[in-house]
Amino acid sequence: MSNDTLTPAPTAAAPRAAPAMPDGHSMTVRDLHAHYGDTHAIKGVSMGYAANQVTAMIGPSGCGKSTLLRCLNRMHEEIPGARAEGTVLLDETDIYARGIDVVAVRRAIGMVFQRANPFPTMSVFDNVAAGLRLNGVKGVDLHERVEVSLRGAGLWDEVKDRLGRPGIGLSGGQQQRLCIARAIAVRPRVVLMDEPCSALDPIATLKVEELIAALKRDFTIVIVTHNMQQAARVSDTTAFFYLGELVEHAPTDAIFSNPGDPRTEEYVTGKFG
Amino acid sequence: MEVGAVSVTAAPPPSVMERGGAARRADPLFKALLTGLAALVLVLIAFFLVFLFTKARIAFAHQGFLSFIFTNDWNPSKEIYGSWPLVAGTLITSAVALVIGVPVAVASALFITELCPRALRQPLTILVELLAAVPSVVYGLWGFYVLAPNLKGAEQVIDDKLGFLPFFGGGPIAGPNYFIAGLVLAIMILPIVSAISREVIATVPADHKEAALALGATRWEMIRTAVLPYSRAGITGGAMLGLGRAIGETIAVAIVIGQSPAIGHSLFSQGSTLAAQIVAEFGEAGSDDLHSGALIACGLVLFILTLAINGAARYLVIRAERAGRSGTRAARAPRPAGGTA
Question: Domain B67-327: what homologous superfamily?
Answer without folding.
Answer: MetI-like (1.10.3720.10)
